Amino acid sequence: MSHRARRGGGRWGLAAVALLALAGCQTPGHPPGMAMERDTETVGHRGLDDALAYARSAEFQGSGRTSLTAAVQALDRRRPVLAAEYHDHYEDHLLQLAVLDALQRDGQPLAVGVEWFQTDIQQHLDAYIAGRIDERALLARTGYFERWGFDYRLYRPILRYARRHDIPVIALNAPPAQVRRVSEGGFEALPEAIRQRAGQGPDDLPADYVERLRAVFDRHPAASQFEHFLAVQLLWDETMAATAADYQREHPDRRLLILAGRGHVLPAHTIPDRLARHTGRTPAGVAAMTEAGDTPNWVDVVLRPPALALPAPGRLGVRLATTDSGITVESLADGGAAAAADIPEGAVLISVNNRTVSSVADVKLALYGRAPGETVQLTYRPAASEPIQTRRLRLR
User: Fold this and answer.
1) Single pTM value for the model
2) Of 12, 115, 212, 271, whose CB count within 10 A is highest?
3) Mean pLDDT of the chain
Protein backbone atom coordinates (compact mmCIF):
# COMPACT_ATOMS: atom_id res chain seq x y z
CA MET A 1 0.00 0.00 0.00
CA SER A 2 1.40 3.39 -0.93
CA HIS A 3 0.39 6.93 -1.70
CA ARG A 4 1.94 10.09 -3.02
CA ALA A 5 2.92 12.77 -0.55
CA ARG A 6 4.81 16.02 -0.44
CA ARG A 7 7.69 15.80 2.00
CA GLY A 8 10.52 18.06 2.95
CA GLY A 9 12.46 19.89 5.58
CA GLY A 10 9.75 22.13 7.00
CA ARG A 11 7.93 19.60 9.19
CA TRP A 12 8.68 19.19 12.87
CA GLY A 13 7.38 17.11 15.73
CA LEU A 14 9.66 17.19 18.75
CA ALA A 15 12.02 19.90 17.65
CA ALA A 16 13.75 21.31 14.63
CA VAL A 17 17.19 21.03 16.14
CA ALA A 18 20.31 21.16 13.97
CA LEU A 19 22.45 18.18 14.95
CA LEU A 20 24.59 18.62 11.88
CA ALA A 21 27.81 19.82 13.50
CA LEU A 22 28.08 16.63 15.51
CA ALA A 23 26.38 14.20 13.17
CA GLY A 24 28.51 14.54 10.08
CA CYS A 25 26.24 16.50 7.77
CA GLN A 26 27.68 19.58 6.23
CA THR A 27 25.15 22.33 6.75
CA PRO A 28 21.48 22.95 7.51
CA GLY A 29 19.18 23.81 4.60
CA HIS A 30 20.32 21.46 1.85
CA PRO A 31 23.54 19.73 2.80
CA PRO A 32 24.91 16.94 0.61
CA GLY A 33 23.45 14.32 2.92
CA MET A 34 19.95 15.78 3.00
CA ALA A 35 17.33 16.80 0.45
CA MET A 36 14.98 19.62 -0.33
CA GLU A 37 11.22 19.12 -0.32
CA ARG A 38 10.15 16.60 -2.95
CA ASP A 39 7.27 14.42 -4.10
CA THR A 40 7.47 10.94 -2.61
CA GLU A 41 5.57 7.69 -2.56
CA THR A 42 4.88 6.55 1.00
CA VAL A 43 5.44 2.85 1.67
CA GLY A 44 4.18 1.23 4.85
CA HIS A 45 7.04 -1.14 5.61
CA ARG A 46 6.60 -2.53 9.12
CA GLY A 47 9.90 -4.34 9.53
CA LEU A 48 12.89 -5.96 7.88
CA ASP A 49 10.93 -8.55 5.92
CA ASP A 50 8.70 -5.90 4.31
CA ALA A 51 11.70 -3.74 3.42
CA LEU A 52 13.70 -6.69 2.13
CA ALA A 53 10.88 -7.99 -0.05
CA TYR A 54 10.54 -4.57 -1.66
CA ALA A 55 14.32 -4.12 -2.05
CA ARG A 56 14.49 -7.49 -3.84
CA SER A 57 11.51 -6.78 -6.07
CA ALA A 58 11.75 -6.16 -9.81
CA GLU A 59 9.70 -3.02 -9.20
CA PHE A 60 12.56 -1.55 -7.19
CA GLN A 61 15.73 -3.01 -8.69
CA GLY A 62 14.85 -4.40 -12.12
CA SER A 63 15.09 -8.04 -13.09
CA GLY A 64 17.37 -10.61 -14.64
CA ARG A 65 20.78 -9.59 -15.90
CA THR A 66 19.98 -5.90 -15.57
CA SER A 67 18.89 -6.07 -11.93
CA LEU A 68 20.74 -4.31 -9.13
CA THR A 69 21.57 -7.68 -7.57
CA ALA A 70 23.16 -8.95 -10.78
CA ALA A 71 25.15 -5.74 -11.24
CA VAL A 72 26.45 -5.78 -7.66
CA GLN A 73 27.39 -9.44 -7.78
CA ALA A 74 29.32 -8.79 -11.01
CA LEU A 75 31.62 -6.26 -9.34
CA ASP A 76 35.24 -7.21 -8.71
CA ARG A 77 35.24 -9.04 -5.38
CA ARG A 78 38.57 -7.49 -4.43
CA ARG A 79 37.08 -3.99 -4.29
CA PRO A 80 35.23 -2.51 -1.32
CA VAL A 81 31.79 -1.16 -2.18
CA LEU A 82 30.37 2.26 -1.33
CA ALA A 83 26.63 2.97 -1.41
CA ALA A 84 25.74 6.65 -1.19
CA GLU A 85 22.76 8.15 0.61
CA TYR A 86 20.78 11.23 1.23
CA HIS A 87 20.23 10.64 4.93
CA ASP A 88 16.47 11.26 4.72
CA HIS A 89 15.77 9.39 1.44
CA TYR A 90 14.24 6.01 2.16
CA GLU A 91 14.94 4.74 -1.35
CA ASP A 92 18.67 5.28 -0.77
CA HIS A 93 18.54 3.09 2.33
CA LEU A 94 16.55 0.43 0.47
CA LEU A 95 19.27 0.51 -2.18
CA GLN A 96 21.87 0.03 0.55
CA LEU A 97 19.85 -2.89 1.93
CA ALA A 98 19.61 -4.40 -1.55
CA VAL A 99 23.37 -4.07 -2.05
CA LEU A 100 24.05 -5.66 1.34
CA ASP A 101 21.63 -8.48 0.51
CA ALA A 102 23.21 -9.05 -2.91
CA LEU A 103 26.70 -9.27 -1.43
CA GLN A 104 25.53 -11.53 1.40
CA ARG A 105 23.81 -13.93 -1.00
CA ASP A 106 26.94 -13.99 -3.16
CA GLY A 107 28.64 -15.89 -0.35
CA GLN A 108 31.58 -13.65 0.51
CA PRO A 109 32.23 -12.75 4.18
CA LEU A 110 31.16 -9.14 4.76
CA ALA A 111 31.37 -6.19 7.08
CA VAL A 112 29.41 -2.94 6.87
CA GLY A 113 31.01 0.41 7.69
CA VAL A 114 28.55 3.20 8.49
CA GLU A 115 28.71 6.96 8.91
CA TRP A 116 25.80 6.96 11.36
CA PHE A 117 27.82 5.79 14.37
CA GLN A 118 31.09 7.04 15.84
CA THR A 119 34.21 5.04 16.62
CA ASP A 120 33.91 5.48 20.39
CA ILE A 121 30.69 3.45 20.60
CA GLN A 122 31.82 0.40 18.61
CA GLN A 123 31.34 -1.92 21.58
CA HIS A 124 27.59 -1.24 21.61
CA LEU A 125 27.24 -2.04 17.91
CA ASP A 126 29.13 -5.27 18.54
CA ALA A 127 26.78 -6.13 21.42
CA TYR A 128 23.71 -5.46 19.26
CA ILE A 129 24.94 -7.58 16.34
CA ALA A 130 25.82 -10.39 18.75
CA GLY A 131 22.31 -10.29 20.24
CA ARG A 132 23.44 -9.22 23.70
CA ILE A 133 21.37 -6.02 23.69
CA ASP A 134 18.15 -5.07 21.93
CA GLU A 135 17.42 -2.18 19.61
CA ARG A 136 16.24 0.21 22.29
CA ALA A 137 19.41 -0.40 24.31
CA LEU A 138 21.48 0.21 21.18
CA LEU A 139 19.81 3.57 20.63
CA ALA A 140 20.25 4.56 24.27
CA ARG A 141 23.86 3.44 24.70
CA THR A 142 25.10 4.93 21.43
CA GLY A 143 23.34 8.24 22.09
CA TYR A 144 21.82 7.86 18.64
CA PHE A 145 19.22 10.60 18.95
CA GLU A 146 21.76 13.07 20.32
CA ARG A 147 24.61 12.23 17.98
CA TRP A 148 22.87 11.47 14.69
CA GLY A 149 19.18 12.14 15.06
CA PHE A 150 17.76 11.10 11.70
CA ASP A 151 14.68 8.87 11.78
CA TYR A 152 16.10 5.54 12.89
CA ARG A 153 13.42 3.67 10.94
CA LEU A 154 15.37 4.57 7.78
CA TYR A 155 18.42 2.63 8.99
CA ARG A 156 16.66 -0.09 10.96
CA PRO A 157 16.29 -2.69 8.17
CA ILE A 158 20.02 -2.56 7.42
CA LEU A 159 21.03 -3.06 11.04
CA ARG A 160 18.44 -5.79 11.57
CA TYR A 161 19.68 -7.57 8.45
CA ALA A 162 23.26 -7.38 9.71
CA ARG A 163 22.17 -8.77 13.08
CA ARG A 164 20.18 -11.58 11.44
CA HIS A 165 23.20 -12.66 9.39
CA ASP A 166 25.89 -11.89 12.00
CA ILE A 167 27.56 -9.29 9.76
CA PRO A 168 29.89 -6.93 11.67
CA VAL A 169 28.86 -3.26 11.58
CA ILE A 170 31.77 -0.85 11.88
CA ALA A 171 31.33 2.67 13.26
CA LEU A 172 33.36 4.92 10.93
CA ASN A 173 32.66 8.45 12.08
CA ALA A 174 34.69 10.73 14.35
CA PRO A 175 33.58 10.98 18.02
CA PRO A 176 31.66 14.15 18.96
CA ALA A 177 34.34 15.35 21.39
CA GLN A 178 36.91 15.29 18.61
CA VAL A 179 34.53 17.09 16.24
CA ARG A 180 33.97 19.80 18.86
CA ARG A 181 37.71 20.32 19.33
CA VAL A 182 38.27 20.71 15.60
CA SER A 183 35.18 22.90 15.20
CA GLU A 184 36.60 25.25 17.85
CA GLY A 185 40.30 24.98 17.00
CA GLY A 186 40.39 24.48 13.24
CA PHE A 187 43.30 22.80 11.49
CA GLU A 188 45.58 23.08 14.52
CA ALA A 189 43.17 20.83 16.45
CA LEU A 190 43.21 18.06 13.84
CA PRO A 191 44.97 14.83 14.82
CA GLU A 192 48.59 14.92 13.72
CA ALA A 193 48.14 11.86 11.50
CA ILE A 194 45.47 13.66 9.47
CA ARG A 195 47.58 16.82 9.20
CA GLN A 196 50.52 14.79 7.93
CA ARG A 197 48.38 13.03 5.32
CA ALA A 198 46.13 15.88 4.24
CA GLY A 199 47.94 19.13 4.99
CA GLN A 200 48.30 21.87 7.56
CA GLY A 201 45.65 24.21 6.17
CA PRO A 202 43.36 25.07 3.23
CA ASP A 203 46.29 25.88 0.93
CA ASP A 204 47.45 22.26 1.17
CA LEU A 205 44.10 20.84 0.06
CA PRO A 206 42.90 20.30 -3.54
CA ALA A 207 41.33 23.50 -4.86
CA ASP A 208 38.13 21.81 -6.06
CA TYR A 209 37.60 20.20 -2.63
CA VAL A 210 37.94 23.61 -0.95
CA GLU A 211 35.73 25.37 -3.51
CA ARG A 212 32.94 22.80 -3.20
CA LEU A 213 32.90 23.11 0.57
CA ARG A 214 33.07 26.90 0.33
CA ALA A 215 29.83 26.77 -1.67
CA VAL A 216 28.25 24.60 1.03
CA PHE A 217 29.53 26.90 3.77
CA ASP A 218 28.15 30.00 2.05
CA ARG A 219 24.62 28.54 2.21
CA HIS A 220 24.86 28.38 6.02
CA PRO A 221 23.60 31.70 7.43
CA ALA A 222 24.94 30.96 10.92
CA ALA A 223 28.39 29.92 9.77
CA SER A 224 31.36 31.67 11.34
CA GLN A 225 34.85 30.54 10.31
CA PHE A 226 35.26 28.72 7.02
CA GLU A 227 38.63 27.24 7.93
CA HIS A 228 37.14 25.57 11.00
CA PHE A 229 34.23 24.26 8.92
CA LEU A 230 36.68 22.93 6.34
CA ALA A 231 38.78 21.26 9.03
CA VAL A 232 35.71 19.42 10.35
CA GLN A 233 34.84 18.14 6.86
CA LEU A 234 38.40 16.93 6.48
CA LEU A 235 38.20 15.24 9.88
CA TRP A 236 35.06 13.35 8.84
CA ASP A 237 36.35 12.29 5.42
CA GLU A 238 39.77 11.24 6.72
CA THR A 239 38.45 9.48 9.82
CA MET A 240 35.91 7.44 7.89
CA ALA A 241 38.41 6.48 5.18
CA ALA A 242 41.15 5.62 7.69
CA THR A 243 38.82 3.59 9.92
CA ALA A 244 37.60 1.64 6.90
CA ALA A 245 41.16 1.06 5.72
CA ASP A 246 42.26 -0.12 9.16
CA TYR A 247 39.41 -2.62 9.28
CA GLN A 248 40.28 -3.95 5.83
CA ARG A 249 43.91 -4.44 6.82
CA GLU A 250 42.91 -6.28 9.99
CA HIS A 251 40.21 -8.39 8.26
CA PRO A 252 41.44 -9.08 4.72
CA ASP A 253 38.97 -11.96 4.36
CA ARG A 254 35.95 -9.66 4.67
CA ARG A 255 34.65 -7.44 1.91
CA LEU A 256 33.66 -4.03 3.21
CA LEU A 257 30.45 -2.24 2.27
CA ILE A 258 30.57 1.45 3.24
CA LEU A 259 27.33 3.40 3.72
CA ALA A 260 27.72 7.17 3.93
CA GLY A 261 26.21 10.47 2.87
CA ARG A 262 26.70 11.70 -0.68
CA GLY A 263 28.76 14.65 0.45
CA HIS A 264 31.34 12.20 1.79
CA VAL A 265 31.11 9.74 -1.10
CA LEU A 266 30.28 11.27 -4.47
CA PRO A 267 32.55 14.35 -4.87
CA ALA A 268 36.28 14.15 -5.54
CA HIS A 269 38.76 13.92 -2.64
CA THR A 270 36.24 12.34 -0.26
CA ILE A 271 36.08 8.78 1.10
CA PRO A 272 36.67 6.90 -2.20
CA ASP A 273 39.86 8.78 -3.10
CA ARG A 274 41.16 8.72 0.46
CA LEU A 275 40.37 5.02 0.91
CA ALA A 276 42.16 4.23 -2.36
CA ARG A 277 45.25 6.07 -1.10
CA HIS A 278 45.16 4.05 2.12
CA THR A 279 44.59 0.64 0.53
CA GLY A 280 45.59 0.88 -3.12
CA ARG A 281 42.11 -0.25 -4.16
CA THR A 282 39.51 2.02 -5.73
CA PRO A 283 36.08 1.25 -4.28
CA ALA A 284 33.14 0.25 -6.42
CA GLY A 285 30.34 2.78 -6.21
CA VAL A 286 26.57 2.32 -6.11
CA ALA A 287 24.10 5.21 -6.01
CA ALA A 288 20.41 5.93 -6.44
CA MET A 289 19.84 8.82 -8.80
CA THR A 290 16.25 10.05 -8.45
CA GLU A 291 17.18 13.59 -9.45
CA ALA A 292 18.73 14.98 -12.61
CA GLY A 293 22.49 15.37 -12.57
CA ASP A 294 25.74 13.89 -13.72
CA THR A 295 26.83 10.57 -12.29
CA PRO A 296 30.34 10.70 -10.79
CA ASN A 297 32.75 8.74 -12.98
CA TRP A 298 33.73 6.36 -10.18
CA VAL A 299 30.15 5.11 -9.69
CA ASP A 300 29.82 1.64 -11.24
CA VAL A 301 26.14 0.92 -10.61
CA VAL A 302 23.29 3.43 -10.83
CA LEU A 303 19.71 2.72 -9.81
CA ARG A 304 16.86 5.07 -10.64
CA PRO A 305 14.16 4.13 -8.12
CA PRO A 306 11.02 6.08 -7.24
CA ALA A 307 11.34 8.65 -4.46
CA LEU A 308 10.13 6.88 -1.33
CA ALA A 309 9.24 7.80 2.24
CA LEU A 310 8.00 6.06 5.36
CA PRO A 311 4.74 7.11 7.02
CA ALA A 312 5.14 10.00 9.44
CA PRO A 313 5.89 8.85 13.01
CA GLY A 314 3.68 9.74 15.94
CA ARG A 315 4.48 13.25 17.16
CA LEU A 316 3.82 15.29 20.27
CA GLY A 317 3.74 18.48 18.24
CA VAL A 318 6.15 20.42 20.44
CA ARG A 319 9.44 22.20 20.11
CA LEU A 320 11.62 21.35 23.10
CA ALA A 321 14.56 23.17 24.63
CA THR A 322 16.97 22.21 27.37
CA THR A 323 16.82 24.86 30.10
CA ASP A 324 17.96 25.15 33.72
CA SER A 325 14.53 23.81 34.71
CA GLY A 326 14.78 20.73 32.48
CA ILE A 327 13.26 19.69 29.16
CA THR A 328 10.95 22.59 28.47
CA VAL A 329 8.13 23.02 25.95
CA GLU A 330 9.31 26.02 23.97
CA SER A 331 6.39 26.14 21.54
CA LEU A 332 3.40 24.12 20.35
CA ALA A 333 2.38 23.11 16.84
CA ASP A 334 -1.12 24.23 15.93
CA GLY A 335 -3.40 21.20 16.04
CA GLY A 336 -0.69 19.02 17.55
CA ALA A 337 -1.15 16.40 20.24
CA ALA A 338 0.23 18.56 23.05
CA ALA A 339 -1.89 21.55 22.09
CA ALA A 340 -5.01 19.36 21.98
CA ALA A 341 -4.23 18.11 25.50
CA ASP A 342 -3.74 21.68 26.80
CA ILE A 343 -0.06 21.22 27.62
CA PRO A 344 1.15 24.80 28.14
CA GLU A 345 4.23 26.45 26.71
CA GLY A 346 6.89 26.53 29.41
CA ALA A 347 5.88 23.15 30.83
CA VAL A 348 8.81 21.01 31.99
CA LEU A 349 8.60 17.35 30.99
CA ILE A 350 9.31 14.81 33.71
CA SER A 351 8.47 11.48 32.07
CA VAL A 352 6.98 9.93 28.94
CA ASN A 353 5.22 6.60 29.44
CA ASN A 354 6.80 6.42 32.91
CA ARG A 355 10.29 6.82 31.45
CA THR A 356 12.10 9.71 33.14
CA VAL A 357 13.40 12.20 30.58
CA SER A 358 16.39 14.46 31.13
CA SER A 359 17.21 15.29 27.51
CA VAL A 360 15.47 15.75 24.18
CA ALA A 361 17.06 12.45 23.15
CA ASP A 362 15.29 10.74 26.09
CA VAL A 363 11.96 12.01 24.77
CA LYS A 364 12.73 10.74 21.27
CA LEU A 365 13.70 7.35 22.65
CA ALA A 366 10.49 7.16 24.69
CA LEU A 367 8.47 7.90 21.54
CA TYR A 368 10.48 5.61 19.26
CA GLY A 369 8.25 3.26 17.28
CA ARG A 370 5.03 5.09 18.13
CA ALA A 371 2.60 5.82 15.30
CA PRO A 372 -0.01 8.57 14.88
CA GLY A 373 -3.14 7.66 16.80
CA GLU A 374 -1.31 5.86 19.61
CA THR A 375 -1.62 7.29 23.11
CA VAL A 376 1.23 8.16 25.44
CA GLN A 377 1.30 9.30 29.05
CA LEU A 378 3.04 12.59 29.69
CA THR A 379 4.02 13.76 33.18
CA TYR A 380 5.02 17.41 33.45
CA ARG A 381 5.14 20.48 35.65
CA PRO A 382 3.11 23.31 34.05
CA ALA A 383 5.13 26.03 35.82
CA ALA A 384 7.70 26.29 38.61
CA SER A 385 5.17 26.86 41.39
CA GLU A 386 2.49 24.45 40.12
CA PRO A 387 1.99 20.79 41.00
CA ILE A 388 3.03 17.97 38.68
CA GLN A 389 0.33 16.77 36.30
CA THR A 390 -0.14 13.68 34.13
CA ARG A 391 -2.06 13.61 30.86
CA ARG A 392 -2.68 11.04 28.14
CA LEU A 393 -2.08 12.34 24.63
CA ARG A 394 -3.01 10.88 21.26
CA LEU A 395 -0.03 11.30 18.96
CA ARG A 396 -0.61 13.03 15.64
Assistant:
1) 0.89
2) 271
3) 89
